Input
Amino acid sequence: MGARKRISAEHRKEARKTQYFAKLNNVPTSPRKMRLVADMIRGMEVFRALGVLKYSNKEAAAKVEKLLKSAISNWEQKTGQQAENGELYVTSINVDSATMLKRMRPAPQGRGYRVRKRSNHVTLFVDTKNEIQN
Output
């Protein structure tokens, strides 16, 4: 690795130390379905978001709920504080597409239809309200 690349990597690493996040890679649901769940909780207070996710009937909601609990735990670990009601918010949540499994499905007259089994990556950031405004 060159010097310039190493320096920029170190800067990114230092910036990540002040951010509180959790990542979930290669989730076997389509990004579109996951984004519907992500849009429900974006900008919400974390305990309210946990309630919304717990009672949502979407399959992706259970995975995002587990990810949100992990992000809260990461925040508590890095700051040494306990998450109290009304203090912590979901600052951003990103859903990116991941690898796609490509399969063939038999079709009439000897043809084959392509089936794309999509997956996604989810990154969830949490922070306190006063840190969001700065």
Notes: The mean pLDDT is 93. The radius of gyration is 19 Å. The CA atoms of residues 57 and 133 lie 33 Å apart. The chain is about 45% helix and 30% strand.
